[in-house]
Amino acid sequence: MEVVIKSDYEEMCRAAAHVVADILNTKPDAVLGLATGSTPLGVYKELVRLHQEEGIDFSQVTTFNLDEYVGLSINDSQSYHHFMHENFFKHVNIPVQNIYIPSGTTRNYQAFCQWYEHRIEECGGIDVQILGIGTDGHIAFNEPTSSLSSRTRLKTLEKQTINDNARFFENRDDVPIYAITMGVGTILEAKQIVLLASGKSKATVVAASVEGPVTSMITASALQMHPSTLFFVDEEAGSELKMREYYDWVQEKKPDSPQA
Ligand code: F6R
Predict the structure, then answer these.
(1) What's the 250 CA to ligand 1 centre distance in angstroms?
(2) I need a labelling partner for 54 at 20 to 30 A (CA). Which of 115, 165, 192, 246 fits?
């Protein structure tokens, strides 16, 4: 795991977007795993800028989103379908048939989840997966005690997650209590993972994920088992990391070539 501490949110998002852009430069038909929530917004903003101003091309890209609320239609303004369309898809040139987001309204969740997993596999797996982290340590909607080998499935949200996400809804009671989410096992199969965390409210859980034991109580800690995870944090989110000096030292002394 490589921990990269950036001075602020904007800088962190720019750096993460450039990881995606570099992958697209070498593999224009890359498969991107995408997240919603507040944190990746700056990444999408920078990717849109790179597309509009620097010509980065998404025409061969395929995307898979991590999750969707159960019960919200694709046109619901709180659905992750809507979020992705507004904040990313409508600004870039990803062919609509290459965009996959879990369905919140399927009649058969089990069959849908199996199909979703199968589709990821058929597309060659995820090249780079963007992740946020919940204040309870979740990645996607893998709440505490989720199996660390879980696959895409329907999941009941924890109260803390419902409270955290209530800010997007008119009333707390409007927040769906179920979501369909990629599993921890699904996420761990991505070739590259880019996790972003911003703000003081994430500091404790960031430190626990990076420096604590691997535990299903904090599903982000499973990323310690992944061979290529970039953990981007801003100053506030990184403020409880014990090995902070070391992470900065690693970045400062980064060898120019992988052979060095
Ligand atoms: C969203 C997702 C969630 C969020 C997490 C953090 O697709 O999978 O795990 O990344 O809840 O949300 P924010 O960024 O709003 O703090």
Answers:
(1) 28
(2) 192
